[in-house]
Protein 1
Amino acid sequence: MVDTKRVLLILTYLASLGCLVWTLRDAKLGELTSDLATMNWWWLGLAVVADISVYCWQALRWRQVLRPVEPVTFRQAVRAIYVGLFANEVLPFRAGEILRCYLVSRWTKLPFSVAISSALIERIFDGIWLCLCLILTVRLVRLPHHMRWLVDGGYALGTFVLSGALLLALAVFLRQKTRALLSGEGWQRHLRVLIDDLNLIGHSRYLYFAFLQSLPYLLLQVIPIYAAMQAYGFELSIGVAFALMVILRFGSVVPQAPGNLGLFQLLTREALERIFNVVPAEAARFSLVLWGTVTIPLLIAGFVALMATGSKLFELQRAAEDHAGIIDHNRP
């Protein structure tokens, strides 16, 4: 019998490898050493600090989402997020999202299913703001024809976000009627559990605060990109960094190798070369520099957070998957 997950994993890795090879086909990698030697390390330091700070802000937002159900300390939220980020960098299919939810439920009295629902709410909020940022980007930047997929992707993401927002609204305002319509077993039962969990979170003013916090969380991600551009010597505006951030965030939705390796470099080069007229070889080399700038600090911080848990990554992954497989079976 064909293992669908393994086949998908192999195809994903091959596609990511193809993206990386295509990006670096004429990058003149021998010049990368001199590029690094001439970089402005003050700007690079700012990029690293800003990148780490982004996820501290996410921890603040996550606490707001969970506040009406279970108080979670800032330290717990940060540790769970960084372990999840580390897992995303080394494991396929963004396993860190489930892992961070498992950890915060293990450290508190928060039900695992509620933690999963809170992560879904975060993705809905991020999607709303990202779609609005895409609209602004398309209006300000003339996209080449072969990158019009961004607009199509925006429509697809917008549909998903609206569906999630509708489910959240039904859970908050029409919980009993919605549950009555989903009286069956299987996926309907899982959806009832999700609606109950969303209802627990949704009846709170803190949810609105979390929604507003999602915009600065997204905009903060512009700073590491802009600072890395300045460190590398590109005289590009913060508007360019904003557009590149939007493109990279959309690209992260696509299944790919751990750490977004491959597609990250391809999108960075294509955007800088095709939209902002950066020399192709320089755009290709910068894609590696930017990837390292936003990835290596997360690997280090995530590894430290993982060591603080006293557990091994694969042990946590198995435990989280087991919890996901038996999620609240005793609930009606």
Protein 2
Amino acid sequence: MITLILQQTLIITTFVMGMMMVIEYINVQTRGMWSQKLEKSPFTQIVLGAMMGIIPGCLGSYTMVSLYVHRVVMFPALVATLIATSGDEAFLMFSTIPATALKLTVILFAIALIAGVLTHFFVKNKFIGLREEAVLPLHHQNESCNRYHPALIIENLRQISFTRALLIAGVFAILISLLSGFVDGSHHLNTLMGAAESTLHTHDHSHDHGGEADWIRISMILLLSAILFIVLTAKEHFLQEHLWQHIIKKHFIKIFLWTFGVIVGIYFVNQYINLQNWISSNLYLVLLIALLIGVIPESGPHYVFVILFAQGALPLSILLASSIVQDGHGSLPLLAESGKGFLAAKFINIAVGAMAGILGIWFGF
């Protein structure tokens, strides 16, 4: 059991840290031009956030959380992302109710844009829960941070430092684990999901997570390949100051421990409370429950709403409310970096989800 929990924690942490590294690398390579343009356009940030949010899975939300933590995008863009994302539920919806999933994606995108714009106008603090110094460092005047060239690979390997060797070894270790199947690559490990998975398979024996696991595995391999390229071609100053000091030492342990703790907590809750069966037995409270369950930064507990909708037991309005509030694992790194930002975003998500659900019920859809 501990091995499975560590696997899932490693996958999530690697995704987040990898996106941070790629973002920082691009930012320095372009001398911050892309991030500066993005910083000056709040509405572009909101559109980007909504677009990243509707990408199935958690990679889009991980990216936007990383940008928010580094103060490249503002809180309204983060809100748009978390409203638009359905996390890993998107895979299940597109495989079981594809037409509805497509319609729901369009609706979520529109609601995310509206919510992001309203948040921009009505929320004064654009970096809730972040410290002032949490920015992408550029060191414009330092030649060691100038553009890189692949030809540096030979020089870097010839005079390899301990940090570079450690990062290369770590990337290869994770790649080998993925390719060999030692790390599953799926967010939906049956033992971890407990009651969530058993309920899912009770209602839908035909559903298979293989395609989703393959997508996650491919994403991981592409991301790790990008990290390997960065580590091999980066100059020593960037490697030490940006990657090691600014990202790994500052964020890795915090994100890893928070992720591990939350997953362990959810696992033990699932051992004593079958959330899915309880929800199914209290359909009159299902909207309220969907909103409250949405606070959990996990995918398993939300599957029941997709399954119940697919069986015709729930209206689209409740599935929409659930999709608005829940973020899968996407909000886990935000919780690790800024509890205040996490709570503020969730508060807005719940308000928007409640409004959408109530209006949907009133108008009968």
Protein 3
Amino acid sequence: MKITDVKSYPLMYMKESPVLPRPFFLVKIETDAGLFGFGEASSAYGHSFPLVVKEIMDGTFRRILIGEDPTNIERLVTKMRTYIWGYLGSTGVACQAISAIEIALWDILGKAANMPIYKLLGADKDAVEVYATGAANFTVDFDWHKRFFERNLREGFTGVKIRVGKSKDWDEEFVRLVRKLVGKDIHIMIDAYMTYKPETAMEMAQRFAQYKPFFFEEPLSQHDLSSLERISRLSPIPIALGERVSSLYAFKELVERKIGNIFQPDATIVGGIKECLAVCTMSEAFSIPCIPHIGGLSAVGYAANLHVALASRNVAMLELDGADWQPMRDEILVEPIFDTSKCLVNGKLTAPEKPGLGIDINEDAFEKFPYERGPVYTDVFPQYGAGRL
């Protein structure tokens, strides 16, 4: 079996609330055996710069992959690294682009073996508990968020994640109201999206602690490792991070410096399914739990991270986007198996049983979601990631 083509798909739809573009990047690998696979690259929230990944795909990866055996996944990952790591670095967009190809190769391998990927990887379980990520929306009142989270709870999610970063007092009051809403038996997670300064992050950890959150995510800049090391040691709430950590080697540095109490790797960011599983396995050896990140991916990214979660002993929970309308999750599938209004069983997402990723993509639907250059996430939330609050 040989690779005959690598096709790139930058896609987009307009998110409803708040209104902002949601860009994505998908790739399709075709073979002379009639088998094909899909993969996805992410920059943490879909992909904010899909044309950057497209240039890597069309300009380099397509050329060096055509004619190769798609089942030689590790050899092809090494080949891609050799061509771009020396010039783009070994993290960031380099790993994101490799992620898309690697996931598509696993999709092909699973189809060739007539097995779902999680079973090829050894299958620790066949379902995983899920929590719902709330919306970053500071322009609406609490009743809007109340309706959002009440729907998540009706669907069966066992936890909800609160997006903070407006002001210190607003953030604490929001957390208090959500805890009152969900009660004591539902997990609440808090995500600050790197908005706080180190001293503010420590203050807010103390203020949030009384509401018993499950974790405090990205309290400050991912680049300020010294401050992250300190808050990981002193915070009364476990510190979670990882969606912006884009290689096994970068996670290794976090382990060595004792940064983070919970890791959130993402197969579409960290280098693919095998690399994400390696992060989970390494973390297990140091008693650091992993909760794979799905910050609003397409069905391809959902599937990839689900297979990692199902194959890892170190994963007991998975993040899912809690938004109701997600066309790149549902409308590009022949059968929308990740529609959380229907698919959750006892608060868990169950394993797909079809071969490979276990999803059937309707490529005709791509025409409904053409990518257009325009505003990115930071245009709508300039304070997010700034580390200034």
Protein 4
Amino acid sequence: MNRMLDYVALTLTIVGAINWGLIGFLELDLVAWLFGNLTWISRIVYALVGICGLYCLTFFGRIRDGE
């Protein structure tokens, strides 16, 4: 279960990073383009990406511990 959560969190964090890259390079917000600018769906996507990014901080502790 924990490994599955790791993969989901990492995938959503990568999606968020790609979205920020598109914003920076092409001025294209993919989430807003797909779901609308700050609609409830896009806000949920942004919130999930943020939560997953925070969760991915725990990877540093697990890397150091050798897990």
